[in-house]
Amino acid sequence: MTVSLEKLSDKIGYKFVNESLLATAMRHSSWTAENEGFESNERLEFLGDSVIGFVVADIMFRRYPEFDEGKLTDLRKIVVNMTALSRVATQLGLGEFVLLGRGEAAGGGQAKSSILANALEAIFGAVYLDSSASRAYEIVKVLLADLIDEALAALKQLDAKSQLQELAARLSLTVPEYRVTDEGPDHAKMFFAAVYIGNDWMGAGSGRSKKVAEEHAARQAFTTLQSS
After folding, report:
1. Catalytic residue numbers?
2. Which pLDDT score is estimated for 149?
3. Rounded distance, CA 126 to CA 15, Å?
4. pTM above 0.85?
5. Domain 160-227, CATH among 3.40.50.1220, 1.10.3210.10, 3.40.50.2000, 3.30.160.20
6. Which of 10, 23, 38, 123 has the fewest CB within 10 Å, making it most exposed?
C-alpha cells in the first residue's frame, strides 16, 4: 500500500486486505478518462450508497421504535444526502486522496461536495467487498456517528407537530388533535387540516398530503400558542 493510501486507511479505521479496492474508490471518472486501463469509483459508489442506506435505516429503526415510517424516512434523509456525506468526507480529508482529471482538478474538484460524497460512498462499498456486511456496518456506524446523533435534533427543528406537542406539554395542555378533510379526485386530492387543543381551534393548513396539511396547521398553531 502506498504511503497516501495507508494514511487514508488509518483515517477510515480499516486496513484493507485487497488494497486495490481502496485505490479504485479514490479514482474519479475524470481521472480514468485520462488514464486508460483503470476502473473509476462509480460502481463502488453505487454499492456504497446501498450500504449506507441500509445501515442508517437499521440504526434509526432500532433506536427510535416510537417513530412511524414517515419520521424514519425523514431521519434517513437528513443523514443520507450529498451535503451531509460531503461534510464527513471533508472531515476525513478525502479531497487530498481523490484522483481527478486535469480539468476537474483545475476547477476545484477536490472540494466539490458531489465528488467528496461519492468518494465516501465508494469507500464504504470497498470496505463491504473487502470484509463483510457486519464489518462495513461498524465502519459506517462509526464514521457517520455524529450525523446520526444530530439527525434527531434536526428533525425536531423541521417537525412542527413535534414542536407543538412539546410546547403543549410544557404548558400542561392536552395533546393537540388534528381533524383532516380532503377534496378532489385521487390524482389531485387536497387535504385540509385543523388542529385543536381541547376545544380551542389553534391553526389550520392545507397540502397535497395529509402529512403536509398537518405540518402547516401545527406551524400556525405553534405560533398562536406562543403568542397567547
Report:
1. 49, 121
2. 85
3. 11
4. no
5. 3.30.160.20
6. 10
Q: Which three cell numbers stand for residue 47?
A: 454499492
CB atoms within 10 A of CB 9: 16
CA proximity to 166, closest of 193, 197, 209: 197
| String of DSSP letters for 94-155 | GGGT-B--HHHHHTTGGG-HHHHHHHHHHHHHHHHHHS-HHHHHHHHHHHTHHHHHHHHHHH
Would you say residue 152 has pLDDT above 80?
no
pLDDT, residue 150, reads 83
Mean pLDDT for 188-204 is: 93
Multiple choice CATH, 3-158, 3.20.20.30, 2.40.110.10, 1.10.1520.10, 3.10.20.740: 1.10.1520.10
